Automatic annotation (TrEMBL):
The keyword Translocase applies. Pfam families: ABC_tran (PF00005), NIL (PF09383). The keyword ATP-binding applies. Signal peptide: none annotated. It comes from the Bacteria. CDD domains: ABC_MetN_methionine_transporter (cd03258). This is ATP-binding cassette domain-containing protein. GO terms for molecular function: ATP binding.
Length: 341
């Protein structure tokens, strides 16, 4: 659906050049919910603006369904932009128009007949659950309701792509969850490819199937969400993962564990079907090595389970090493290095 090939964007000022995007290669497949995450200044928003040539790339090509955007005439580019809906962090609703007026505005710009405008607007109001708010104005709505209007407006022209620019950043956690569920419905019921940028890893975890991590204008890691979450390679990605999955207890808890005689702590990662198997119990019983689970959880990602446990093994070193060797053949296991208490 979308292909970035060796894309760079440089902004020139009087004194210097700012490289907002550097040599990015990304492919977003049709039907993807693709997340781009990075801290402020990573280049996420600039990359999004290149999708519909709101910004022209300095080098490289952007293709939509195989068409190089740089080859389009202004007329053809306008037609293509109608196939790309956008929703924003601050909603960008017109305060002088009602909810229905905001949703119908793109259709009026496209010269759609009034009867079709009325039908489509009513249909979208039902879809986002705001039929009773049709005659209200944006100032009468909550943040979540405003974003629902923004989504309905973006869907008015039946786009192939929906771009979400920090769409949940201004919302509380409960409202964020509701909006993400709505975006998931948009993707599933209409087959729309969703490209979203965010600095919140929980958003990526909730609805995306693929993710790219950006830093200083570059894509530093990308892949399926499950793979990136369970095996983050880059330190920046690891920090994002830790922001939503605290995978180690507090320093105070660890100090108490050490005072009670704990010495060696191991992180064990279980993936997929292994989370259902009593693997840990079977192997430790086989080698007669007691163990304590100090910390851990099992989470769901993309309809698959991922278990992360911190375990303290007890017994002589020979037997413990046998357990670790046997576990390492089926799961990931590593010793956690702790500071001296």
């Amino acid at each position: 659906m979308i292909e970035f090939s060796k894309i760079s964007k440089v902004f020139k000022t009087k004194d210097r050049e700012v490289h907002a995007v550097r040599d990015v290669n990304l492919t977003i497949d049709q039907g993807d919910i693709f997340g781009i995450i990075g801290f402020s200044g990573a280049g996420k928003s600039t990359l999004l603006r290149l999708v519909n040539l709101l910004e022209a790339p300095s080098t490289g090509t952007v293709k939509i369904q195989g068409t190089d955007l740089a080859t389009l005439s202004q007329k053809d580019l306008r037609q293509l932009r109608r196939r790309i809906g956008m929703i924003f962090q601050n909603f960008n609703l017109m305060t002088s128009r009602t909810v229905a007026g905001n949703i119908s505005y793109p259709l009026k710009l496209a010269g759609t007949p009034k009867a079709e405008i009325d039908r489509r607007t009513a249909e979208l109001l039902r879809f986002v659950g705001l039929s009773e708010k049709a005659r209200d104005y944006p100032e009468q709505l909550s943040g979540g309701q405003k974003q629902r209007v923004g989504i309905a407006r973006a869907l008015a022209t039946n786009p192939d792509i929906l771009i979400c620019d920090e769409a949940t950043s201004a919302l509380d956690p409960e409202t964020t969850a509701d909006i993400l569920k709505l975006l998931k419905r948009v993707n599933e019921e209409f087959g729309i490819t969703v490209l979203l940028i965010t600095h919140e890893m929980n958003v990526i975890q909730s609805i995306c199937n693929r993710v790219a991590v950006m830093e200083q204008g570059q894509v530093i890691e990308q892949g399926d969400v499950y793979d990136v979450f369970t095996q983050p390679q880059h330190p920046t990605t690891q920090r994002f993962i830790q922001s939503v999955h605290q995978d180690i207890p507090s320093e105070q808890i660890l100090k108490e564990w050490q005072k009670s005689g704990g010495q060696h702590l191991y992180r064990v990662l279980f993936k997929g079907s292994l989370t259902h198997n009593p693997l840990l119990s079977e192997i430790t019983q086989k080698h007669q090595v007691p163990f304590n689970i100090i910390y851990g959880s099992v989470r769901e990602l993309q309809n698959k389970l991922f278990g992360n446990l911190l375990i303290s093994f007890q017994g002589n070193d020979v037997q413990v090493n046998k357990v670790i060797d046997e576990l390492s053949q089926q799961v990931e296991i590593e010793e956690v290095q702790l500071h001296e208490s």
